[in-house]
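step=encode ok
step=design start
structure_in=
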């Protein structure tokens, strides 16, 4: 049976495992990330206080946001905020805490969320975007161009541990996988940093989420299929 490597956190893989098993793959789970609350996350509190809208781009950003801010503010204060989220999983994290998104993008990417929200809300407002230590600033300038006050703050750290790197090297050297699935650009970059340094014995098939990740994979000389 063909084997596919899933690179996100094990707890996030249930839906993807069902999808790839239906395609005839056996799923191998080896996360290429570790997440933890950012030590200086509390410096973001003032920016959050001033914002009308809060943007949450993953279920993890939602979870760390709640961990940090519910310890500092009353629930009624957070209920006054407006939330824009990516995908059903992020919305569910909020809903379990008793908070509900005011905007949920159809696209499961940051670019999709930003683009769709900007198309719907023209009146200038204040926005706070809690993000990971790896998140880039692409597409953020579009908010200021449209007159919005857009602030960001690092709420959680995203690391690639030495143990995870060694485990990935072992999988690749043993030629035990036929395909790899990436749910973010950073996961591809971490994989490629290891993959490009070894003498791969087999050609791998790549699956990913989002056009941005697909484009970067293709620029590296490989083909990637966007998971539907």
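sequence_out=
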């Amino acid at each position: 049976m063909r084997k596919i490597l899933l690179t996100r956190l094990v707890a996030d893989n249930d839906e993807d495992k069902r999808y790839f098993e239906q395609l005839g793959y056996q799923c191998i789970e080896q996360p290429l990330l570790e997440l933890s609350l950012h030590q200086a996350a509390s410096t973001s509190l003032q920016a959050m206080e001033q914002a009308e809208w809060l943007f949450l781009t993953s279920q993890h950003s939602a979870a760390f946001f709640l961990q940090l801010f519910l310890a500092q503010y009353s629930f009624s204060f957070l209920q006054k905020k407006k939330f824009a989220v990516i995908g059903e999983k992020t919305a569910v994290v909020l809903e379990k805490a008793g908070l509900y998104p005011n905007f949920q993008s159809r696209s499961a990417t940051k670019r999709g969320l930003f683009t769709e929200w900007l198309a719907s809300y023209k009146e200038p407002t204040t926005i706070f975007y809690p993000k990971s230590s790896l998140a880039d600033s692409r597409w953020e300038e579009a908010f200021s161009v449209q007159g919005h006050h857009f602030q960001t703050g690092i709420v959680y750290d995203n690391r690639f541990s030495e143990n995870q790197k060694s485990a990935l090297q072992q999988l690749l050297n043993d030629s035990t996988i036929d395909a790899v699935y990436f749910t973010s650009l950073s996961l591809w970059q971490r994989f490629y940093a290891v993959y490009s340094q070894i003498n791969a014995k087999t050609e791998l098939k790549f699956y990913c989420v989002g056009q941005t990740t697909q484009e970067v994979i293709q620029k590296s000389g490989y083909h990637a299929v966007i998971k539907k």
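step=design ok
step=annotate ok -> Residues 36-158 form a domain with the Rossmann fold fold (CATH 3.40.50.10090).
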